[in-house]
UniProtKB/TrEMBL annotation:
Localization (cell): Cell envelope
Domain Cytochrome c-type biogenesis protein H Ig-like, first and last residues per copy: 289-395
Superkingdom: Bacteria
InterPro entries assigned: C-type_cytochrome_biogenesis, Cyt_c_biogenesis_CcmI, Ig_CycH, TPR-like_helical_dom_sf, TPR_CcmH_CycH
Transmembrane segments: 6-24, 94-114
Domain Cytochrome c-type biogenesis protein H TPR: 149-259
Encoding gene, per UniProt annotation: ccmI
The protein's name: C-type cytochrome biogenesis protein CcmI
Main location: other
Keywords from the named record: Cytochrome c-type biogenesis, Membrane, Repeat, TPR repeat, Transmembrane, Transmembrane helix
């Protein structure tokens, strides 16, 4: 901030000089003395007349007449100069001087009232120290940013995440609420808000938290935080099949060899034990469809690795909305997978043997399925009765 105030002081001094310079000049430079000028002109005229007389250009009578006229003009010009000069001294320079002296105080007061000195100081601090030393310093900085930019929803979201890390759920809930009010609904934000309310309420889901989590799943059926919390809540309420459904959907988005996957599997096993079922038997008996997804050779060069493949299964006699779906990366093709209840898009939906499903696969150049340009032919199957692996080849233009 030192350089800012230094530059500000220089600008104020420049403004004061601009105002005071005419006054100083007026005080240092008196108005041109018209009397002295008239006397000088008179003397020059007298000398000129004398030279003309000596040269015989004018007669002595004309010389005397012209000299008398020059004297009269001198008296008249002197009197006129005195009359014109008097009004210039009526005003006092002190109002201008006092106004210039008050200028710095007015400028500073206006800047402190309308300006943003805290924001400028924070900007300089972030330039000098981009990464805070610890979580406490990080929270302090984010709190200051929210005071400077209270309409910045992203900063409120970051502050809420930091509060959760420091186990301050009530404050995190307020921060996520402010973020939601400014950014609008998003699956991740709704899930974080529900999680903050869950912790703030003694690890219990109240109606508002449950509403936020369910809304997050409506927007993104794979939202991990919402699936995890709703699974925990269902388990604690004794709704073990529902908890298993949530956690299996959560597992579907995790690498099988990750710590998170194994932790979720432990919760699923405990839920199955509570149901009096053997985890391994249930896993073996679980209904599913084995699939192989391929991309036609003539389309291989049409899609880069950022393209996304959407595999889905719907009720052929029901609405067009899929019951089960899985997303693959273009680079994984050809891919083999098992589509089962873990990939259900709605809670409580289970894939059962004998169920009639219609399979489809389509590819999109980005993550939006609505932009898909090619698809495989739809295929009707019966769960548990279709032999071997079902092959879907994406080769048809939409």
């Amino acid at each position: 901030m030192t350089d800012f105030w230094l530059y500000g002081a220089l600008l104020i001094l420049a403004g004061m000089l601009f105002v005071l310079w005419p006054v100083w000049k007026m005080r240092r430079q008196n108005t041109v003395d018209r009397t002295a000028l008239n006397v000088a002109l008179y003397e020059e005229r007298v000398a000129e007349l004398a030279a003309q007389k000596a040269a015989g250009e004018i007669t002595p009578e004309l010389h005397d007449i012209a000299l008398e006229e020059a004297g009269k003009l001198l008296l008249e010009d002197t009197a006129r100069a005195d009359q014109e000069r008097r009004p210039t001294h009526r005003g006092s320079p002190w109002p201008i001087i006092l106004g210039a002296g008050a200028m710095p105080l007015v400028v500073i007061a206006l800047y402190m009232s309308w300006g943003n000195p805290d924001g400028l100081q924070l900007l300089r601090e972030m330039e000098n120290e981009p990464a805070p030393a610890d979580i406490v310093a990080y929270i302090d900085r984010m709190e200051r940013v929210t005071r400077v930019q209270p309409q910045n929803g992203e900063v409120w979201y970051m502050l809420g995440r930091a509060y959760l890390m420091q186990q301050r759920p009530a404050e995190a809930e307020r921060a996520f609420g402010n973020s939601l009010a400014r950014l609008g609904e998003s699956p991740e934000l709704l899930a974080q808000l529900g999680q903050a309310r869950f912790f703030a309420n003694g690890n219990q889901l109240d109606s508002e938290a449950r509403t936020a989590l369910n809304r997050a799943l409506e927007m993104n059926p794979r939202e991990p935080t919402a699936l995890g919390l709703l699974g925990i809540s269902a388990f604690e309420e004794g709704l073990y099949p529902e908890a298993i459904s949530y956690w299996e959907r959560l597992q579907a988005g995790m690498p099988p060899d990750s710590e998170g996957y194994r932790a979720i599997q432990g919760g699923i096993d405990r839920a199955r034990e509570r149901l009096g079922q053997d985890s391994e038997t249930v896993s073996q008996a679980q209904a599913g469809i084995s699939l192989r997804i391929e991309l036609a050779e003539e389309l291989a060069d049409s899609y880069g690795d950022e393209a996304v493949v959407f595999v889905s299964a719907r009720d052929p006699d029901g609405p067009p909305m899929p019951l089960f779906a899985q997303r693959l990366e273009r680079g994984s093709l050809p891919a083999e997978l098992v589509l089962d209840s873990r990939y259900a898009l709605m809670p409580g939906v289970q894939m059962e043997n004998g169920q009639q499903l219609q399979l489809s696969a389509r590819i999109s150049p980005d993550s939006d399925v609505r932009n898909a340009a090619h698809a495989a032919d739809r295929l009707d199957v019966t769960v548990g009765e279709t032999e071997g692996r079902v092959i879907l080849v994406i080769d048809r233009k939409l």
